[in-house]
Amino acid sequence: MINLHPTAQQLMTYVDGSMEPMMALVVACHVDMCAHCRAKVEQLQLTISDNAFALESQDNVSFGDMMASIMALPAAEPRVRPASPPTLELDGRSFVLPRPLRRFVDKTGNWSHLLGNLWQAPVDIGGGGKAQFIFMEKGGRVPEHTHRGNETTLVIDGEFSDGLGHYDSGDFIHMDGHHVHTPRSDADEGCLVFSVVDKPLHFTSGIARLLNPFSQLFF
Amino acid sequence: MLVGIPLDNQQRRSVQPKDCADEMAHHLKQVAENRCKAAFSQVFGYFAPRLRSFALKQTGNEALAMELVQDTLSNVWQKAHLFNAEKGSPSTWIFTIARNIRYDMLRKQQNRKEDICADDLWPVLCEQTADPNEVEMDEQITLDQLGTLFEALPEKQKVVIEAIYIEGKSQQEVADQLDIPLGTVKSRTRLALQRLKEMLNDHD
Question: Exposure winner among A208, B128, B162, B184, fewest CB in 10 A?
Answer without folding.
Answer: B128
